[in-house]
């Protein structure tokens, strides 16, 4: 569904990803995990065409991501960034429906979709008339998720969607995300720095370091067959892993 073919992205201070080859299979949830600065967000931006590879290529649904395809790809991919990325001067509903209105979808169709998404994300309908500043962190993330799902994307790209939330809110949203992923059966790329979250939500975990893959597999693979010392160090550094 999504493929990176030996992709390098150089910035002034060095490469953010280095000759990275990675496939995201259709209908599966893949977690990208690794220390801050290892290139996780850059991978999502490359998939969306928000940044261009220095070398290598990215394929989305079999087509190379580039000038000719990037508009279609951004429409086919729902994207949720940390903190939700909602427009503060628009109500929750206007945030959710912005693209659909720009694309001149029928108002009745938009209303129907908003209702479906409220049910899916477990939000009360009265949240829709509020501005992002009037919502809790968890509600904001749910609105961000509604916005990403509005146009029924083929793929869902989530960049640390639960990073800023307190543990209880986070746990609630994790449970809901899991059932949403199962219900929709979409291709999901989830960036997280929490191994427990990756193991709970993803079919497969890709551990990155310095723009490259250290190991991919399941939490069990990482524990029982670590590909490098770094894998064990990363697991040991995760709080709460004892309980998993
Ligand atoms: P992560 O999401 O894993 O924390 P990022 O993909 O955001 O990491 O960043 C990877 C590396 O690329 C970091 O060293 C970061 O400083 C650098 N980087 C990311 N975006 C830019 C940019 N627009 N300009 C310069 N350097 C950048
Ligand atoms: Mg990031």
Briefly say what this structure is.
The protein has helices at 40-48, 70-76, 92-102, 107-121, 137-149, 167-184, 195-201, 219-224, 229-236; strands at 2-11, 14-24, 29-33, 55-60, 63-64, 77-80, 155-159, 187-192, 204-209, 212-217.
Fold topology:
Blueprint: E1 2-11, E2 14-24, E3 29-33, H1 40-48, E4 55-60, E5 63-64, H2 70-76, E6 77-80, H3 92-102, H4 107-121, H5 137-149, E7 155-159, H6 167-184, E8 187-192, H7 195-201, E9 204-209, E10 212-217, H8 219-224, H9 229-236
Parallel strand pairs: 3-8, 3-9, 6-7, 7-8
Antiparallel strand pairs: 1-2, 1-4, 4-5, 9-10
This protein binds adenosine-5'-diphosphate (ADP) and magnesium ion.
Residues 11-13, 16, 34, 36-42 line the site of adenosine-5'-diphosphate.
Listing every helix as H and every strand as E from the N terminus to the C terminus, the arrangement reads EEEHEEHEHHHEHEHEEHH
Which ranges are low-confidence, i.e. pLDDT below 50, for 5 or more consecutive residues?
none
Assign the structural class, choosing from mainly alpha, mainly beta, alpha/beta, alpha+beta, or little secondary structure.
alpha/beta
**Per DSSP, what share of the residues sits in E-state strands of 2 or more residues?**
25-35%
Global morphology: globular
The profile of the biggest β sheet is: 6 strands, mixed
Count of DSSP strands: 10
Tally of separate helices = 9
Radius of gyration equals: 18 Å
Bound molecules: adenosine-5'-diphosphate, magnesium ion
């Amino acid at each position: 569904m999504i493929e990176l073919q030996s992709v390098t992205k150089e910035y002034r201070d060095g490469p953010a990803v280095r000759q990275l080859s990675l496939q995201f299979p259709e209908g599966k949830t893949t977690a990208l995990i690794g220390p801050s600065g290892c290139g996780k967000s850059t991978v999502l931006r490359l998939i969306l065409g928000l940044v261009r590879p220095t070398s290598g290529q990215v394929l989305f649904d079999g087509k190379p991501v580039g000038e000719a395809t990037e508009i279609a790809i951004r429409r086919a991919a729902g994207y949720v960034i940390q903190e939700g990325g909602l427009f503060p001067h628009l109500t929750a509903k206007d945030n959710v429906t912005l693209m659909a209105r720009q694309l001149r979808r029928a108002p009745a169709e938009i209303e129907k979709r908003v209702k479906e998404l409220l049910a899916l994300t477990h939000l009360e309908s009265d949240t829709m008339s509020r501005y992002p500043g009037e919502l809790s962190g968890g509600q904001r993330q749910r609105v961000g998720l509604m916005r990403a799902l509005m146009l029924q994307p083929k793929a869902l790209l989530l960049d640390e969607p639960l990073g800023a939330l307190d543990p209880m809110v986070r746990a609630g949203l994790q449970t809901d995300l899991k059932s949403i992923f199962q219900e929709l059966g979409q291709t999901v790329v989830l960036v997280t720095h929490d191994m427990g979250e990756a193991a709970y939500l993803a079919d497969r975990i890709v551990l990155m370091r310095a723009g490259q893959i250290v190991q991919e597999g399941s939490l069990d693979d990482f524990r029982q067959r670590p590909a490098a010392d770094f894998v064990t160090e990363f697991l040991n550094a995760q709080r709460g892993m004892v309980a998993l």
